[in-house]
Amino acid sequence: MKRKAPSLRKQLGSPALFGIVQGFIAASIYFSTGLVAERALGLTWAVFLAGGVLFAFIVPVYVEGASLHQERGGATVIARHGFNELVSFIAGWAICLDYLILVALCAFASTDYLGLFWGAFNSGVTEFLIGSAIVLFVALLAIRGGGPRRFERAAVLVLGDLVLQVLLVVLGLALLFEPDVLFNPAAIAGSPSAEDLIFAFPLVLVAFSGIDASSGLAGQVKIGRAGLRRLIGVRLLAALVPYLGIALVASSVLPQTGDRWVEAPLLGVANAFEQAWIREPLKYLIAISALVIFLSAAQAAMLGLSRLGYALSVNRQIPSAFGSLHPTRATPVGIIGFGAITAIVLLIPADMEFLAAIAAFGATIAFTIVGLSVIRLRYREPTRDRPYKMPLNVRFRGGELPLLAVGCVLLSGVAFFALLVEHGAARWVGVVWMVAGISLYLGYRLSQGKDVFKRVTVPESALTRRAREVEFGSILVPVLGTPLDDDIMQTAGRLAAEENDEDAGAVIEAIWVFEVPMTLALDARVPDAELKRARAALKRAKAVGEEYEGVEVATAIVRARKAGAAIVKEAKRRGVEAVVLAAEEPTRVGGGLRLGGKPGLHDTSVGETTRYVINKATCRVILTAPPAARTLDPMGVEPVEAPIPLGHARGVSDEEPGR
To answer: What is an example of a Pfam family matching this protein (predicted)?
Structure first.
């Protein structure tokens, strides 16, 4: 058996996800509060409240989508299963822009808080050099990689900053808050125009990019159903308390200070305390904490960019060279290098408002697509097992319509429209970025002779070294919950890893099909024992398949009336290049079984499910011969005797793709 190639680790849990999401939100508070207050004046709190409502919609939408298909990629994965590969790329390319800007924003904003220690830090060449050094530092950390300990340490630092921000809220509400700002904001800070409010709203959305970064780790986390529900509660509570609390305090303080504290707004809030024993220590604590949080958020953004770029490369949405992995660290050095160079270039304008608006441009597109994808998945995959299902659903056109997802789409659409109308420079940069990306995608796919709407994958090993294209880039394997599963997965694993060629591999998609009788509704409740059996079988299949070098195994549970039809449908929907099944009573032909799709095939003793898949599949079908012992027909036909060794016979026709 071959030793597995280095791969992205799967050891993260709730603390890492909390740290990533909260780190982005905390960082955005440090820079976006001033940008919003400059425009919204006394209604700053109302703009942040609208952003908080959108956040409350986005979190459960992302959690349901990411838990439904637990693969690396975040918005790209959700959009892929909800729509197709082109929409998946659009979502990924938009959030990629978001990550690039966030790296630059965090590096740039750090200099404004460093200016508390020395004024030259936040202006001129020194500002650019410090920002560039921060970008290069986080890029180096991303290339070196890191296990769960790094993310757990970051979560501790983020938790410490959360305590500081809550303290600022408590002190600010007690000593600085003006209640009139809620009922008569014009008396406190003047009334903003409708255009200024529209201008300000998208700027608060930058805070929520951490949701995609954390959902992009869905295939790497260890967290159960109860953990998902707790994580949602913690996310909302930890995010909205300082998020809205600081907005209330800032509405009472910042508008009167003019533009002095626009780029370091929390220093402006601290400076408003009349008590020197509160003001002076608090300013330095805020400055230090801001630097720590900006570094943490920049690392998380670079992590999100690297994982997203890797996912785009593996799925042949961008050239594989961009997703090339470090030979020993197994980190996507191509994407990280591209991100670092681009982020440094973005530091040149030294315009925080411009950067925040571009980041919001990418975020609003991604959030809109994710919301639409989750809605469509409710109708496209109504019976799929959902580890988390968001509340507030209504029956609509034969399915369950998630109202939170509808709210996510509507508010994200409003924010996107506001960007197009009010943010001229960001609008053109965003449009050029999206047009360039879509052109790259279409040109790459068409030049490779690949369908622009279907999924096409390459193995991880193809990104670590120069490799020839494998014959089977993706393989579908239905598992049965019997000892025969190991043989099927081993056959698929050998094909995927190309045992005689270390430079190749593929993705195996293992599925379990529940055959639901016509007497029951298709979405009828599956007995817990059967569901447990299915999950155990898929877990075992994943372990067996991933023993082979460069092989990644994704798992899913499917409901259908007939197993054969379900297998054919899933193979077509997922765009796999082969299906591996078990055959009963195989016939030796040249040392193996070769099915040519001739009429005589129906005279052989393959089972009903196997026969259906062979005749109907639009991709190649590979059969593994069972051992000389009693075994089951795929999906439940009576046991039969098998005369030759397990896995010895297998073959495909080179004549027709469906045979």
So the answer is: Usp
